[in-house]
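Why do we care about 3D structure at all? Because function follows from shape, and shape follows, mostly, from sequence. That is the central idea of this module. The next example makes it concrete: a single protein chain, its amino acid sequence, and then its structure expressed as C-alpha coordinates.
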Amino acid sequence: MKTPAPNILEIETENPAPGRAMALDLFGAPASENQLRTKPPHGARGRGMVWLDYETEEWRCAADDYRDQHGVELQAESRLGGRGNWFRMGG
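And the structure:
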Protein backbone atom coordinates (compact mmCIF):
# COMPACT_ATOMS: atom_id res chain seq x y z
CA MET A 1 0.00 0.00 0.00
CA LYS A 2 1.29 3.48 -0.84
CA THR A 3 0.62 6.48 1.38
CA PRO A 4 0.98 10.12 0.24
CA ALA A 5 3.23 12.27 2.40
CA PRO A 6 4.11 15.95 2.34
CA ASN A 7 6.82 16.70 -0.18
CA ILE A 8 7.03 13.06 -1.23
CA LEU A 9 5.02 11.74 -4.14
CA GLU A 10 4.77 8.22 -2.74
CA ILE A 11 6.48 6.02 -0.22
CA GLU A 12 6.34 2.27 0.01
CA THR A 13 4.74 1.07 3.23
CA GLU A 14 4.88 -2.65 2.49
CA ASN A 15 7.51 -4.85 4.11
CA PRO A 16 10.61 -5.43 2.01
CA ALA A 17 11.50 -8.87 0.72
CA PRO A 18 13.12 -11.14 3.34
CA GLY A 19 16.81 -10.38 3.73
CA ARG A 20 16.54 -6.87 2.22
CA ALA A 21 17.12 -3.77 4.31
CA MET A 22 14.59 -0.94 4.22
CA ALA A 23 15.82 2.65 4.35
CA LEU A 24 13.90 4.76 6.85
CA ASP A 25 13.40 8.52 7.04
CA LEU A 26 13.90 10.59 10.21
CA PHE A 27 10.47 9.58 11.52
CA GLY A 28 11.02 5.84 11.04
CA ALA A 29 8.85 5.64 7.93
CA PRO A 30 10.20 4.00 4.78
CA ALA A 31 12.29 6.51 2.83
CA SER A 32 11.23 7.59 -0.64
CA GLU A 33 13.48 7.24 -3.67
CA ASN A 34 14.12 11.02 -3.62
CA GLN A 35 15.27 10.88 0.00
CA LEU A 36 17.88 8.30 -0.98
CA ARG A 37 19.36 10.59 -3.65
CA THR A 38 22.24 12.94 -2.92
CA LYS A 39 21.37 16.63 -2.90
CA PRO A 40 22.61 18.48 -5.98
CA PRO A 41 24.91 21.46 -5.38
CA HIS A 42 23.17 24.81 -4.88
CA GLY A 43 22.63 26.40 -8.29
CA ALA A 44 22.92 23.14 -10.27
CA ARG A 45 21.09 23.41 -13.60
CA GLY A 46 19.51 20.89 -15.90
CA ARG A 47 16.45 20.40 -18.10
CA GLY A 48 15.37 24.01 -17.65
CA MET A 49 15.49 23.74 -13.87
CA VAL A 50 17.79 25.03 -11.13
CA TRP A 51 18.33 23.42 -7.68
CA LEU A 52 18.19 25.85 -4.76
CA ASP A 53 19.20 24.86 -1.24
CA TYR A 54 16.57 25.30 1.47
CA GLU A 55 16.68 28.49 3.55
CA THR A 56 18.92 30.40 1.14
CA GLU A 57 17.76 33.82 -0.08
CA GLU A 58 17.32 32.42 -3.59
CA TRP A 59 15.16 29.53 -2.27
CA ARG A 60 12.97 31.95 -0.26
CA CYS A 61 12.38 34.17 -3.32
CA ALA A 62 11.58 31.20 -5.57
CA ALA A 63 9.31 29.64 -2.91
CA ASP A 64 7.49 32.98 -2.51
CA ASP A 65 6.97 33.13 -6.29
CA TYR A 66 5.70 29.54 -6.26
CA ARG A 67 3.24 30.37 -3.45
CA ASP A 68 2.02 33.47 -5.31
CA GLN A 69 1.48 31.50 -8.55
CA HIS A 70 0.02 28.27 -7.09
CA GLY A 71 -1.54 29.38 -3.80
CA VAL A 72 0.28 26.78 -1.68
CA GLU A 73 3.36 26.82 0.53
CA LEU A 74 6.27 24.87 -0.91
CA GLN A 75 7.98 22.30 1.33
CA ALA A 76 11.65 21.52 0.75
CA GLU A 77 12.59 18.03 -0.47
CA SER A 78 14.77 16.01 1.90
CA ARG A 79 17.83 14.50 0.25
CA LEU A 80 21.06 12.96 1.48
CA GLY A 81 23.21 15.96 2.35
CA GLY A 82 20.45 18.51 2.84
CA ARG A 83 17.18 19.93 1.62
CA GLY A 84 16.02 22.07 -1.29
CA ASN A 85 13.95 22.08 -4.47
CA TRP A 86 14.20 22.14 -8.24
CA PHE A 87 12.65 25.32 -9.68
CA ARG A 88 11.86 26.15 -13.30
CA MET A 89 14.18 28.83 -14.60
CA GLY A 90 12.47 32.01 -15.75
CA GLY A 91 12.89 32.84 -19.37
